[in-house]
Amino acid sequence: MTKQMIAGLALLALTLPLTAHADVQRVSAPEGAKVYIIHPADGAKVKSPVKVQFGLSGMGVAPAGQDIAKTGHHHLLIDTDYTALKLGEPFPATERVRHFGGGQTEVSVELAPGTHTLQLLLGDHRHIAFDPPVVSQKITIIVE
């Protein structure tokens, strides 16, 4: 487990008492906010580890646990879709849902050879989706 994952899990643990019940009120997303994957491009053939760069417009990035207006932090969804998550609850930290609660904007991720999908979902200071969700287009990459 990386230092970044440990820090993200620690921050999640600190915010759980604030979100212990389901369907907490979600923070409104600023109008025009967009999250996107800068790199790799949709359809790219890449080698592992895959460098993924996150983009965001209309909002800023802040670490989890810091309640700062119009900011959030990234979650990288690997081979899953944001609709599989309970958007009114903190996102689980799994191999398919990677947390970047330290405010990171890129990562190198080990992926097995084959076809994979990547999607970004911005979370608020509690790891909960904005309303409406600030989510990227899902891209497909081929790891050689």
Chart the SSEs and their pairings.
Elements: H1 3-15, E1 34-39, E2 45-46, E3 50-57, E4 60-61, E5 71-78, E6 97-100, E7 106-109, E8 114-123, E9 139-143
Parallel strand pairs: 2-9, 4-5
Antiparallel strand pairs: 1-3, 3-7, 5-6, 5-8, 8-9
List keywords for this structure.
144 residues, 34% strand, six-stranded mixed beta sheet
- Residue share in helices? under 10%
Biggest sheet features: 6 strands, mixed
N/C terminus separation: 24 Å
What coarse outline follows from CA principal-axis ratios?
A: globular
Q: β content, as a range?
A: 25-35%
Q: What is the count of β-strands?
A: 9
Written as H for each helix and E for each strand, in order along the chain, the element string is: HEEEEEEEEE
Question: How would you state the average pLDDT, rounded?
Answer: 88
Q: Which residues form runs of ≥5 with pLDDT under 50? A: 7-21
Quickly count the helices. 1
| Oligomeric form | single chain
* Main structural class: mainly beta
How many whole angstroms does the radius of gyration measure?
Answer: 14 Å
Q: What features would you describe in this structure?
A:
- The chain is mostly beta strands and 144 residues long.
- The chain has 1 helix and 9 strands; from the N terminus they run αβββββββββ.
- The protein has one helix at residues 3-15; strands at 34-39, 45-46, 50-57, 60-61, 71-78, 97-100, 106-109, 114-123, 139-143.
- Strands 2, 4, 5, 6, 8 and 9 form a 6-stranded mixed beta sheet that branches. A 3-stranded antiparallel beta sheet has the order 1-3-7, with no helix packed on it.
- The longest helix is centred in the N-terminal third of the chain and has 13 residues, at 3-15.
- The radius of gyration is 14 Å and the shape is globular.
- The two termini are 24 Å apart.
- The model is unreliable at 7-21 (pLDDT under 50).
